[in-house]
Design a protein that fits this description.
Blueprint: E1 3-10, E2 14-20, E3 26-33, H1 36-47, E4 52-58, H2 65-75, H3 79-88, H4 95-102, H5 110-120, H6 124-128, H7 131-136
Parallel strand pairs: 1-4
Antiparallel strand pairs: 1-2, 2-3
């Protein structure tokens, strides 16, 4: 067995999981109910497919939003300053867009997440790990 990647689109009543191998070939695709025993079975099925699983989860409720806001605040950045820094990373962003991401009015795409993390000086994983983890890795004040 080798490394595999599992993506889950999380919804309120159902989730959809797709697993791919190193070549991008689909190994598994299943829609499951939002029910703990069913989800535990899904996890076991996915873990049986590979030695190392990298998970990606698309959360409907903006999982990174609070971590972005707390890390931005810990760095001493205003929304306007962070948006300027994100734009400098090559991902054009207004402070209004950033505000909408933090309030979960607008979803945070992976491209947004990577650019925001770079502008904050943290790993994208730190922003996905939740507020406590993000604040542990936050960089120093505004520049």
């Amino acid at each position: 067995m080798a490394a595999i990647w599992a993506g889950i689109d999380a919804g309120k009543t159902h989730h959809h999981c797709v697993v791919i191998d190193e070549s991008g070939g689909r190994l598994f695709s299943q829609r499951v109910a939002n029910d703990e025993p069913v989800l535990l079975e899904l996890l076991a099925d996915v873990l049986a497919l590979g030695d190392e699983v990298t998970w990606g989860i698309d959360l409907a409720d903006g999982g990174a939003a609070l971590a972005i806001e707390r890390t931005r605040t810990a760095c001493g950045y205003s929304q306007r300053l962070l948006a300027t820094r994100v734009t400098a990373q090559g991902r054009p962003m207004t402070f209004t867009t950033l505000s909408r991401i933090e309030r979960t009015v607008r979803r945070c795409d992976i491209d947004d997440l990577v650019a925001i993390a770079a502008a904050l000086g943290v790993s994208p994983c730190a922003l996905l790990g939740g507020p406590a983890r993000a604040s542990e890795t936050a960089g120093g004040g505004a520049t």
